[in-house]
Amino acid sequence: MTDTDMKIDPQRAAALVSQIKTVRERIAAVARGRDVRLVAVSKLKPANDILALVQQAEPPQLHFGENYAQELSQKAELLPRNIQWHFIGGLQSGHCKSLAKIPNLFCVSSIDTEKKAQLLDKYRGEYLSSLSTLSPSSSSSPSPSPVPGKINVHIQVNTSGEPTKSGCPPGPSVVSLCRTVSSLPNLHLLGLMTIGAVARSVATTPDTENEDFERLRQQRDLVASELGLEPQHLELSMGMSEDFEGAIVAGSSEVRVGSTIFGARGPKSEAKIKV
Length: 275
Ligand SMILES: *Cc1c(COP(=O)(O)O)cnc(C)c1O
Fold this sequence. Notes:
alpha/beta; binds pyridoxal-5'-phosphate; pyridoxal phosphate binding; pyridoxal phosphate; Ala_racemase_N; PyrdxlP_homeostasis
C-alpha cells in the first residue's frame, strides 16, 4: 500500500483541516510574532488522517508526533518522506535502534538518560554510514526526500517531580545530559521538553503561571549558562491540548497538540494504522 491508494474520507479531511486551522490561529493569537512549531500528535490515529493534513492543510502540516516506536516506524514507511516525525513517547533503550533507522525522524523529545542518548547516537551513526556505502543515489532521482542526517533531541525533564513521570531530574543531571548530547556526532541538542502535572495543565490559562513551564525555563537558562549557549538557542517543548496557549505565553517554542486536532483517542488495543 502506498499513499496513492490510501483512502481519505472528504468529510473527515475537512474536519481535520478546520481543526488544525483553529489551533494554528489560537497559537498565532498568543505567539506575538514568534515562530512556535506545532507538532500534530497523531498517536493511535490512522495514517490517512495524517495524509489528509499533509495534502489538504494550507500550508501543509509536516510535523507529526508519535508515542509508540513500532507505530511510528510503520507510519513512516507508509507515508510521504517529507513528513518530519517526532518521537515524543516514553523512550526505552530497546527502541533506539528502530528509531535511528527512520530517515525522516526529525526529533526524539524524550531522551532522559545518557545511555539512551549514546544508543541513539550509535545507531544513527551506523544507519548513516550504511547509506553512504550504498551506491550513490542517482542525481536524477525524482524523490524530494531530505537527506537523512543528525537526529534532533529534546531532553525530557521531570519538572513536576512526580515519581510516575519519566524525565531527567532537574539540576546537575539535566546539565550533564545536555553536555553529553552536545558532544555526540549524530545527535543535535535542540532543547528541553516537559509534560508536567495534569492537574496544573488543566488549571492553566493564558493568564496563570504554570510551575512546570517556569521550571523548564529555569532549567533552560541553567543549561545555557553552563554550556555557554544563548538561552534563545535552546528550545522549550511544552504545551498540549489543555494548556498550549499558556505554554506559549510562558515562552514555549514547540507545542504538541493531539486531541484538539484529531479528536479523543480510543484504547490502544483498538487503534488501526490502515483503515
Ligand atoms: C499524547 C501526548 C500529547 C498530546 O496530548 P493532547 O492532550 O491530546 O493534546 C503531547 N505530548 C505528549 C508527550 C503526549 O504523550
